[in-house]
Design brief:
This protein has two helices and two strands; from the N terminus they run ββαα. With 85 residues, it is of the alpha+beta class. The N and C termini lie far apart (27 Å). This is Ferredoxin.
Length: 85
């Protein structure tokens, strides 16, 4: 599953720099997570880093985007193959 940020977000800015996939960015009102880039930190860490630093616990799994560990790992592999720059 990709993660998402609920409207309980207080825009504290601690999650964005923690994301190893650059999946988190400022939205119109709150931060947002790009589900095409979110691997729940699979390939980087054992747990989602944004969830571990969020002071208001507003980053749950998205029930509309169910992905297995293997799917998240494949997404990680695809993201790591992108040209850096």
């Amino acid at each position: 599953m990709a993660l998402y940020i609920t409207d309980e977000c207080i825009n504290c800015d601690v999650c964005e720099p923690e994301c190893p996939n650059a999946a988190i960015s400022p939205g119109e009102e709150i931060y947002v997570i790009d589900p095409e880039r979110c691997t729940e930190c699979v390939g980087h860490y054992d747990t989602p880093q944004c969830q571990s630093v969020c002071p208001v616990d507003c980053i749950p799994k998205d029930p509309d985007r169910v992905e297995s560990h293997e799917m998240l790992l494949a997404k990680y592999t695809r993201l790591m193959a992108e040209p850096q720059g």
